[in-house]
Amino acid sequence: METKQFQAESKRLLEMMINSIYSQKEIFLRELISNASDAIDKIYYKALTDDQISFNQEDYFVKISANKADRTLHVVDTGIGMTKEELESNLGTIAKSGSLAFKNENEMKDGQEIIGQFGVGFYSSFMVADKVVVYTKSLNDEQGYKWESTGVEGYTIEPYDKEDVGTEIIIYIKENDEDVNYDDFLDEHQLKTIVKKYSDFIRYPIKMDVTEQKPKSDDDDELVEVTEEKTVNSMVPIWRKNKQELTDEDYNAFYQEKHFGFDNPLTHLHISVDGMVRFQSILYIPEQLPYDYYSKEFEKGLELYSNGVLIMEKSADLVPDHFSFLKGIVDSEDLSLNISREILQQDKQVKLIAKNIEKKVKNHLQSMLKNAREKYEKFFEAFGRQLKFGVYSDFGANKEKLQDLLLFYSSQEKKLVSLAEYVDRMPEDQKYIYYASGESHDRIEKLPQTEMLKDKGYEILYFTEEVDEFAIKMLMNYKEKEFKSVASGDLDLDDEETKKEAEKQKEEHKELLDHMKTLLGNKVKDVRLSTRLKSHPVCLTAEGDVSIEMEKVLKAMPD
Ligand code: ADP
Ligand code: MG
């Protein structure tokens, strides 16, 4: 038996791994299960395509068992196994060493954090192990082998007579210390939870011996402990299933299982894309506004899977801010398991996925607005503000994407209307889209400036949220119609005759106006005659682009 050194690079990574205080040590199990699943994939494919190999569905599984007495955790698979050479090259080096290169480039950053985010495959088992032993027999070799390592010291390989093709990995779990309760990794219940959390949708059964209290027999209620082998994962990911096979209840159940919210989803989208990038996704819009939604604490993001294996619980890069209310999962076979948060941000595939999602969600909302108005309004009551923020914060860059999703309260309809609806029914002589800002619909209703417009049969949009007017300023216009505040100096309502008459009046009353201006001092900028008042003697207007309401907001903002 010979002891071999790990390659220099692997050794360094291993050192970091062992010393890692990364909190999610439990991900080692995800890595081992995903390797097992990969290995089964390989033999499964062979069995399906090679007549020489007998094929039996039940032969393909992963089995996890713990032995508290000797502190070992066993992960057994019926996959393709490894030859001696494969053991050398696969477990003696790091298959994908990109992580270490990345670590070197970012030496200043917290090393442990970075390791944790990578999930560096097989080596991650050393986060919880004093020693790891691998028994394996390849489909392509009569002889089996035993690989053993206690970490940085190196590893040994020796022949071992293993009966079945496949791999058994034995993790000698560390003793508890102040920081970590390693016993968790020997606890049946905890292990089951970890499997469910990270590997629920692995295609092959993950079996465990599950102990339960059960009545002794049909006629005897006395409880006895029964241990049975059970499959703990659900195996087929819901997002891989056919939409036609799934009911609203299925989608709701998945929403609950994933703890996306305590409510039921208002709507869901099931996306399957097979183009430049391949991915499946299930997205939800919650029915209720999450309590922290409009606060700094709120974190957007979707669960990200690489081929059925969870790689990130909240990937923010998948959703734009204006759709940050989305909950759900994305699974792509085009993503590497060992991808970091930092790399993810620049990843071309991820960008493609994000773009696709944005488009699909936009279309979904648009068709909801058209075909399920009530539902859409419910959505808009909760998340409309976010859409308006989206218009505002991107300096109008999202105009095309978002303008048709906006709703405003209308003087005419006394309910929410879209800009398209407004413009489509504008009288021919109306030039602008008029809006009025105020604290409430009631207050706006009473604004003197609205009277003339209503008389002319012009519809007015009521802005009661601070962001409304800011968003509109960014949009500038809709279908070439500019927005105009009823409070702006020039409403451009009058015909030529009225204008001339107004000029004349202005001259005639110049003295009076000047006198009033002097009296009011610097409380006002100007005093003018108005043609737009009807039953009110006077009104205040704002000069330029900023309305009185906006001015209030701007003044209240910290500098
Ligand atoms: P990755 O899975 O990203 O390639 P890992 O460190 O997880 O990196 O695994 C390294 C390699 O070791 C795998 O690519 C595979 O060839 C081999 N391997 C690991 N576990 C098993 C297993 N259970 N059965 C067969 N081969 C395995
Ligand atoms: Mg792996």
Summarize the structure.
The chain is of the alpha+beta class. The protein has 18 helices and 20 strands.
Average per-residue pLDDT, rounded, comes to 85
Strand tally, please? 20
Which kinds of small molecule does this entry bind, naming each only once? adenosine-5'-diphosphate, magnesium ion
Which sequence of strands runs across the widest sheet?
1-6-5-4-7-3-2-8-9
What separation lies between the terminal Cα atoms? 73 Å
Number of helices: 18
Q: State the share of residues found in helices, binned by percent.
A: 25-40%
Describe this structure in words.
The protein has 559 residues and is α+β, with helices and mostly antiparallel strands. It has helices at residues 8-18, 27-49, 84-91, 98-105, 111-118, 188-199, 248-257, 341-346, 348-371, 373-393, 399-402, 419-424, 441-445, 449-455, 466-475, 496-508, 510-520, 548-556; strands at 2-4, 62-67, 72-77, 129-137, 144-149, 155-160, 166-173, 206-215, 223-231, 265-274, 278-286, 302-306, 309-315, 327-332, 407-410, 416-418, 433-437, 460-463, 477-478, 481-485. The protein is 35% helix and 22% strand. A hairpin with a 5-residue loop joins strand 5 and strand 6 (155-160). Helix 2 packs across helix 6 and helix 10 packs across helix 15. The longest helix is centred in the middle third of the chain and has 24 residues, at 348-371. Bound molecules: adenosine-5'-diphosphate (ADP) and magnesium ion. Magnesium ion binds at residues 31, 34-35, 121. Its main location: cytoplasm.
